[in-house]
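Chapter review: from sequence to fold.
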Amino acid sequence: MSTKRLAVVCNYVLRPDRIGGMDRFFVAYDKAAKAKGYEVDWFFPDVLDKTFYEGVTVFSAEGNSSVEAFFLNYLEENGKMYSTLVTHFTELCTPFYKKAKHAGRIKNLIAVDHNPRPLNGFPLKKQLKNRLKGYLHHKAIDRFIGVSSYTARHIVKDLGKVVVRKTGVIYNGIDTSVFKKRAQHDLDSQGNVHFVVVSHLRESKGLQDLIDALALLKPDLQNNLHITIYGEGPLEEGLKQQAKDKAVDQLLTFKGSSSEIPTILADYEYLIQPTYMECFSLSILESLSANVPVITTTVGGNPEIIKEGENGFLFRPKDKNALANIISEVVTGQRGINRDTSLLIEKDYSLDRMVAEHINLLD
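The token string follows.
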């Protein structure tokens, strides 16, 4: 019997301070693929720490090239052949796929799309380029997988109807067992509301709108809330300065990145995510798994998981007044979520379900 070999190419850096949902998926998927008789090799652009990936065969470009170029070079230098290639976080329908399929004698190539689209769509030049790429290179990819219905629709919109028959959806899932669950939705003894943000600090995440929204609140409301922000990124110092300029810096605490998010979330009443771009947010799934409702925007796959008044509240991206209104009504008690938000996640968005559906693509 010939050996089944699987290569997984991920444009994703392994970091010790960010052991998140995708890391747990990758490790669980590796175990499940091996149980199906596959030898599995993983390729990343950089590996800063692989402690969590013990037992996983990991190759790193060490930041010297793109992970796609690194993989093609590996194939050329080692002459290794793979029956299946799976990609995550890579650009779709580039020449890479045809080159990799030929060089690795790959029979089954699966491209998983996690990439969000711009709020106002791609400019015309980019739209035309995407459509041309789809026409020229779609045949090299056997399956396109979106992590939400939104993503799958946009794969077809971007690349054209030539890919519609081989495009499907596998929703992201999380390991609910690692999340500490908030026992109840009672406020602290002073009646204060503690919000949390878990986000990369860049413009597309919309945290500048959150700061502006806080400045719209009356002082007595400001005194009854606090927001803790976990994450880092290029906008951090700008956000801190904006908060000072708006005289709301006392309402915010910046904590940087943390690997303890699964146990931290349960200390808060609501997660706020004012993002402009999203496919299907793992942060939202994680917050709901911790029984912490979510305040977020109507972009991407967010409305596929957040149901207004049931497990969170939605507002249009960049609508600072709407965000301020939601925060105000939550603080005053006019709005609230009292049901257990974790039940839906355990039922429909588990890591086991996600892994099983991805493994099924291998056969």
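Two observations follow directly from the output. The chain has a mean pLDDT of 94. The two ends are 16 Å apart (CA to CA).
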